[in-house]
Input
Amino acid sequence: MRVLVANAGSSSLKLRVVDSEDSISAATDLSAPAGRFDEEELQEWLSGTGPVDAVGHRVVHGGDRFHEPVTITEEVESALADLCALAPIHQPPALAAVAAVRRARPDLPAVACFDTAFHSTLPAGARTYAVPAEWRERWHVRRYGFHGLSHAWAARRAAQLAGWGSRSEEPAARIATCHLGAGASLAAVVGGRCVDTTMGFTPLEGLVMATRSGSVDPGLVLWLLEHARLSTSDVGDGLEHGSGLLGLAGTADMREVVTRAAGGEAGARLAFDVYIRSLAAHVAGMATSLGGLDALVFTGGVGENAPEVRAAAAARLAWMGVEVDPVANQLSPDVEVTGAGPVRVFVISAREDLEIAHAVRRVLVGRAYANGELPPESGVGS
Output
C-alpha cells in the first residue's frame, strides 16, 4: 500500500509518498501561510507521484474522543472542527488539507492520525490536574500531550536498535523519549505505552522551547494580567512566540545559541543553561514515572543535530547512569551513543511519516477484514 502522508503546519504543507518498503518515493513542501495553499500546485504535484492508495493526515488534537487513527468521515471531520479551539494554530490547517486532498483525489480513503492519541494511555494520576472538578468535567481540562506520533516512532525504533525484540518482550524496557525541535516534549514509555508526558492541556506546558516558555508559575500570568495590565493576547503571544531561547538569547535557533555560548556571550550561555536544566529535570521526572530508566532517546531537529545538548543533558543526568560516548555522539541518526553508563542512549530520526503510513495500513486493512474484503488467512498488513 502506497500512502500519501499529509502533514499540515502553520506555514507549510509537507507531503510524502511512502511506498510499501517504507521508502519515500515522492516528497514536496508547499507554502501554506495560515493553512492556505495553492490547490492547483497540489493537484499538479499529486498527478506526478505515481499510484497512491490512501492518504494519512497528521491531526494535532483528537480530544477525549479519538484515541486511535480513524477513517475520516463527515462526522469525524465535524468532530475535529469542534476541537479547533484546543489547537487553533494547527487544527484548521489540517482540516484545510483534508478538504483540499479530497477535492484533488476523491478516490483516496483518508485516515486521521492524532498527535494526542499516543498519550491516551496516561494513567489518571498523570493526566489529571488538581483544579476544580467543574473545570475538569465541564471543559475537559486535563493533560492531553502532543508530539505523540514522534514519540511512538522514537520509542519503537529505539527498542529495535536495542535488540529488545517483539512487543511481548518490551514491558521491561523503560524509555524516555525527547522530541526536541521548535516545540519540545518528553514522553515516558513502557511496553509501547505512554505513562507520562510533559506537554499538557496545550503545547505550552513543560520544557523550555525555541519561542515558548514552557511551564511557568500560573501566578505570574495572573500578575501580568492584573498588575502589569497586559491583555490576554499580549500574555499569550509573549509566552508562545517571545519566550524560550528567543526570549533569553534573542534567537530561537539552537545552533546559534550553542555557537554564541561557546564564544562567551552571556545571554546565549544563560539560554543554554536554562534549556538544559529544564530538559534534565523533566527527564528525571519521566524516570520517576517509569520507576527507573533503561533508555534515553533524542529526536527532532535539536535532538538529532545538537550533540552539545545531548552531552550537556547527559552530564546533568550522570547520577542516573546516563552517559554519552563523545565519538558516537557526533554521528548521524539512527545510532546508539551510549557511554559507559547503564542507561542506553539513542539518537533517532523523527519519522512521523512512517508512523502515519503504518497507522493508515492498520486502519484500512482492519476495515477490509471487517468488511470481508480480505480473508483472515491472507496475511495482508501483517
User: Anything to note?
Assistant: Confidence is low (pLDDT under 50) at residues 166-170, 375-382. The CA atoms of residues 8 and 97 lie 7 Å apart. The longest strand covers residues 24-31.
